[in-house]
Structures are given as structure tokens and as C-alpha cells.
């Protein structure tokens, strides 16, 4: 069954939350998001927050500011990826890679995300690289997982270089192959 990006992301997020509940009895927790307001917060600990995904606010439910800033058309999948829900970043495994799926925490975070995407695209343009839009971070700061804005493929890319490896033909299939990973909260 082919899922949309929104359906695949919602399904993965449900698996992620269920894994946390099963292993800890609590929803996902984050120390990085402690003290940052969000409608996702359901409980606060000593130096962490517990969160659950929330519906993305209806206004500005797209990345048009990024497209306009660079005068390019963005792959529709990237709009759906970043505007399906508000949530904390989620650890996952894809084949042998452990990654952190980038998510939007609150409306300020959405503005910051758009600024970061613009900066990323401007750097690529300056280096004469084809445009990509990051969707996940890795242990190494030199590599990231991105959506190729020309083909819609999901790629592993080395920052600032032409070194790229195709991981999946599209974003929905990539998300569908992710396995949730329990992140350790210090």
C-alpha cells in the first residue's frame, strides 16, 4: 500500500510514541527541548520534557518562504514532511544508519527551520551543487539525510560536496523503512 508522506510520518510517529510508552511507561522525553515552549509538552521533569505530537497549525502550512527566497519550486513532499505535525526530533534506524528525524517543535522553530533551509540552499547554490533539503541529522556533522529537490529521492549527502548516495526513491518510502530507536535521556 502506498502511503502519502503525511500518512507515513504519522504512522512512524505513532510507532515511536508506542515504543517509548512500552519501554518507559511515559511518552517520548527530551533534554534538548527542556524550557522551550510547545503545545507538544505533556509533562515536565527535572531537566527534560515529555511530549506527544500535535497537529500543525493551519496558518502558513507550507515552506513557500523558502521557495520564494530562492526563486525555486520545492518538492511537494517536503511541505508535507515539515507541516504534518509538531513534534520533537525522533531517533530512528535506516538500514545500518542511526539518525535523528528533524521535526518542528513550535512556531518559532518553524521560522528557524525555514531560515536554516534557506541557508543550506544558498550554500549549495554558491558551491554549484544541486539543491537538497535536509530531513535528518546523523552522528557526523559532515553528513545528513536530505530530499533531492530535483528528483525527490532521499539521499545521504556529505555537506558541501558532490558526494551523495541514494537511500530511497521518495520520502514516503524512506519513512516507511524507518525503525524507531529509544533515545537515552540523561
UniProtKB/TrEMBL annotation:
GO terms for cellular component: cytoplasmic side of plasma membrane. The keyword Cell inner membrane applies. It comes from the Bacteria. It is a peripheral membrane protein. Its main location: membrane. It is found in: Cell inner membrane. InterPro entries: Syd, Syd_sf. The keyword Membrane applies. Gene3D superfamilies: Syd protein. Keywords: Cell inner membrane, Cell membrane, Membrane. Belongs to the Syd family. Interacts with the SecY protein in vivo. May bind preferentially to an uncomplexed state of SecY, thus functioning either as a chelating agent for excess SecY in the cell or as a regulatory factor that negatively controls the translocase function. HAMAP family: Syd. This is Protein Syd. It comes from Providencia stuartii.
